[in-house]
Amino acid sequence: MRRVFLIFVFLIQSLNQSESFTSEFELRREKILKFYVDSVQLGKDKVDFFILTAKIKFSKEVKILLPYLDSLIQNPGIGDMFFAYQLIGLYLHCKENLPFEYRDKIKNVFKTRTIYRGDTENHWLMYYVAWYLISQEWENEIWSNLKTSSENFREASEYINYWVDGTTSFGQMEFDSPTYIITFVPPLCLLYDFAQDTLMKKMAQMMLEYILFDYAVEYLKGCYCGAHSRDYPELAVNPIQAQSQAIGYLYFGETEFDPRSMRKNAVIFCALSKFKLPDVIRYIATDRQFPYEHKERKRVRNVIRYGRERNPAVYKYTYMTRNYCVGSLQGGILQPIQQHSWDITFSNGLTIFSVHPYFSEIELGMFFPEEVKILPELVDRAHKVYRSPDKWTSSSPYERIFQYRGSLIVLYGLFEMVEGEKYRHVNIFIPRGVDRFEIDTVGWVIGKVENGYFGIRVLGGVYELKLEETCYRFRVYGDKICLIIEVGDSDEFGDFDRFREGLKSSEVDFDFDIFEVRYKGIRGFEMRFGYFGSRYVDGVEYKLNWGLFDGRFARSDLKSKVIEINYKGKKRVLNFNKLTIEETQAIQ
């Protein structure tokens, strides 16, 4: 009888907590929509398809909005996958409010405007979600690509299934991006809301849960923490301003709504969606009571030249606490142009990281089909800073990284650089907003950010310190550069002085000739890492061989297409082989 009573009490408590989460989600949802409907002023603020969707859907005077819609759809120079998915999203959300002539006008755009498919994972998803919904809406038509509705529908269905299969088997290619998450979640919301096929709708729901879990486990008060496949330089140094912040605000909370970036407008499709995030994922995003390590496996985007594998494995490691998160990749060229290999992100949004500002024809030629000789100039035109010695995002073939818990070793073998390659230096970003910052006599760069602490030891190189508007820029010169990074907080070490003294007493043995370092740090374990060698913790080889997810909150084996999400005994299993969701509730 007592067990039955305890079960009843637990279920009531869970129900109350679930209702609280739902209520908070609805308030955040309403705040987003209200801002874009009421606060964005026509004729003064920039208006796009997302904003028009919100305004048309809730406006009583649609007529005054139609000229703005005309201005967006009449420009013949616009016709890519962003345009297509946003326009069909507006149409489907607002169809009942649109005059019949505008429904026909939008349909005619898809019949006459060539839609550019693009060349990346996010491009193709948006492109095929658009054609799926267009072809579903208007049957028995011939479209601008000279294919029938049934042909476009079949091709789009096949690609979406192919993408889901690859992602859940081998990992995402444009993974964990604070910028590009808004090109995955909003299109999937559209697919979930408007796909008439029940299996496609279920698949969209499961992929939304999959991607949002992937974000949740590396979420800290509005920031997407750790390493990323693609990050813009201005957001790498200020992660709280990334587009992912709007997604995090809506689904997880613990941050303030900040619409300053226009590209955050994509969250409107999410706020309008009927998709509801399961409580178990929301708990994972916000529970930072105990530190945890989390490992993931992703894959490199399609390599078309200068490589032996089409999609080499990417291994991610993240260590999360309530005051900071530190995360990393294994190093090397894993994504062109915008790779963010490691960082510390503190709970107030400040971040620390390093980058070798590498650029080359080889890096770009691996992934882009154009003539390699002209690629650096073409990319520099688009991204402005690609060939800059000061840039804050970049891959490098001369970078190697080893992380274990809050300790990190980064090796830069710039002695391997070949003739014609520039910039034998590494840039370290330390924000001006740190509470304390000093360079001690042993060689540690030490600082404090609220309750989080950090230390950076530079070996094998010489550095200069430049004070910039937003940061302390350390520029380290050398052929064999080693960075040792330690991160801690008041929960683990007490006051800052104890952390600082622990750094001074750590043991460092750096062999410059063979380019190997042995480090016994403040937590007592010993790390050994060589540029040409393996990784070791306390003498045991640390192998990079885990599955897609491996940690306290989830497990997913390579090629399994099954992810088991777990929070305090409550399990939610996404089985993409069967397109099923199973949830079990443990009694505690």
TrEMBL record:
This is Heparin-sulfate lyase N-terminal domain-containing protein. It comes from Candidatus Thermokryptus mobilis.
